Amino acid sequence: MHLSKFFNLIALKSKDPEVTNHTHGVFVEIKGKGILIIGKSGIGKSEVVLDLISRGHKLIADDSVSFYKNDKNKIIGKAPSLLKNLMEVRGLGILDIKKLFGRKSVASEQKLFLVIELKKFRKKLDCSRLEMTVNTFRIIDINIPKIEIPMTQTRHISLLIETAVKNYILLKNGPSTISHLSQKLNLQLSLDH
Q: What's the whole-model pTM score?
């Protein structure tokens, strides 16, 4: 049985007035940032997050994430109270992450910083090879940056997610790697002539 089936019952009985949106996905903390991982059912979100947890990151919510807007107009995510610290992994069932990995493997809530969408790899998938494409994901009337990562069996998705988060943090703090490369190329071309 999926946690989302439990969630339907929880949503009906929820007494938390601040929750304004429930989203299907897995919410984790990577490098102190709240990252929502979304994708079609069965694509492997929970397995990827299990690997991220084993690499030292934190689970906030699995399958259903409760979001609300705080007084600073930031989106905050957390697990519905009955699902806190729990994660469903196909073939393993429902796991208590805090008991399996320790208290440092979970967090109660976090500000939503970035959305990662896992997509099944297709040859015609529009994906830049030179720089990371950042789109948007709208939640509670606020646009959140979103990065799409195509999945194949040979790709190490948790490593790609970690790298995407680090790269996005760098992008927010200054010019992109492709901009630096372009400047270097222009400088080299000017010196060659």
A: 0.80
Which listed residue (24, 69, 98, 119) is catalytic? 24
Residue 155 falls in the annotated catalytic set = no
Which residue in 57, 58, 62, 63 is the catalytic one? 63
Give catalytic status of residue 129 as yes or no: yes
Residues 6+ apart with CB under 8 A from 165: 30, 31, 33, 35, 114, 116
pLDDT digits (tens, 9 = 90+) for 68-113: 998 888 999 999 988 999 999 988 999 999 999 999 999 999 999 9
d(C-alpha 70, C-alpha 63), whole Å: 22
**Among 122, 129, 192, 193, which one carries the catalytic annotation?**
129
Check if 122 is active-site: no
Which of 45, 57, 58, 78 is labelled catalytic? 45
- Judged by DSSP in three states, 139 sits in strand
pLDDT tens per residue, range 133-166:
889 999 998 999 999 998 877 778 999 999 999 9
Count CB atoms within 10 A of the CB of residue 4: 16
> Is residue 103 flagged as an active site residue?
no
